[in-house]
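Appendix B, Record 12. Input sequence as logged:
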Amino acid sequence: MVINVYERYYKADAVFSGIRRHGALVMLISDSEAGNITYKAAVTFFPHTDAEDFAVSYDAYFEEVLYSSKGRRSRKREAAYLEQLPEIIDRIAEENNAAVFWDEPLREERRG
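Logged structural output:
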């Protein structure tokens, strides 16, 4: 079962496929199946051309596996990954010539 442990939209700056992206969806994802758990940090950059535009683009999606092993969800592990999430996403963004503006959220956070 895939669960977005955390997700929040932020202002961002990037260009992918020749299109300027002004928004980013940042996620901490857990995926559990058959007694195994995987945690991923993920970000997708989208155009956000106006205040109502939250159409996510899949051509600018990046993720990094943080943990994968036998087990189940752990609130303690999730809390640790949430603390590290900005640093991880910043590294992923920088590797792709993009930036997430953490002090400019576009919506409230959602937890799963």
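The first helix runs from residue 75 to 95.
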